[in-house]
Amino acid sequence: MKRARSKALALTLALTASVSSPASAHQPVFLGAQSAKISNSPVLVEGLISFAVTANFTKAGQVRNFRFALRDGEPLKLEYLILDRKPENQLKTAQLPSVTITSPSGKKSTMKINERTKFYEPFGRQNYLFLSRLSSNGEAGIYTITLRSRTKSAALVAVGSREVRGEVMEIGSTKGTCPEKIKDEIEVSNTRASQLIGLSERASELCAEINDWGYRVVQRDGEDFAVTMDYRSNRINVKIKDDEVIEVTVG
Fold this sequence. Notes:
Blueprint: H1 3-12, E1 27-31, E2 43-44, E3 51-57, E4 63-70, E5 75-83, E6 98-102, E7 108-110, E8 117-121, E9 126-137, E10 141-148, E11 153-159, E12 168-169, H2 190-194, H3 201-211, E13 214-220, E14 223-224, E15 235-241, E16 244-250
Parallel strand pairs: 1-3, 2-4, 13-15
Antiparallel strand pairs: 2-12, 3-11, 4-10, 5-9, 5-11, 6-7, 6-10, 8-9, 13-14, 15-16
C-alpha cells in the first residue's frame, strides 16, 4: 500500500482506549463528530471486508454515519454490538442507539434489537453483547449506516466478513481524500479532482459516484486506452499505476 493511502488509512483506524474491536479480524474505525453529516462520513471501500465501526455518544440525539460499498452479488453482513459494561448493559432496548440502514436504492430499514448474547473478544480482552445480526443478499452500490443516540452510550457495528486489510476513504480537502459533494456541481475544478491522487482505483470510482462526476480510466500500468475526444466539465480522467491513482484531469 502506498504512502499516501497508508497515511489516510492510519488516521481512520484510531479507536478510543475504552473501545476495542470485537475480533482481531475486524479492522477498527472510529466515528468522530465530522460523521454527523452523511456527506462527510467515511466510506469503507470494500464492504465485504470486515470492519468494526464504533461511535461514542455523550447525550441523546447525536448522530454518526458511515458508508460502505458492495459489488454486484456480494452479501450484506452487519452485526450490532455493545460492550458488556455499564452504562450500556444496563440500558433498556428503547434507550440504546438506533441503527438505520439505507440501501443504494434508498430503501431504509432498522436493525431490530432481538438478542443480548454474550461474546468475549480475546484480542482486546473485552466482553460484548450481540444485539442484532443481519445477513442477506446485498445490493450493488453505496450503503449508509446511521447511528442515533437516545442517551449517553456507545455502539459498534461490524461490517463484512473477509479477513484482509481494507481501505477507508475519508472526505476532506487534502490529497488522498474525497471532496465533499457540491450540490449542482457543473464543472469539476482541477483542485478537487487532484485530491483523488493516492486513492485506489476502486476508491476513486466511488468518490466520483458520490460526487455525481463522470469517470473513466484512461491509462492503467502504462497502457493507454482509447477514449472519446469530447470534453465534459463534470468528468474526470484517471491514470492508474499499481492500483493507485497517479494523475487526474478534468474533461
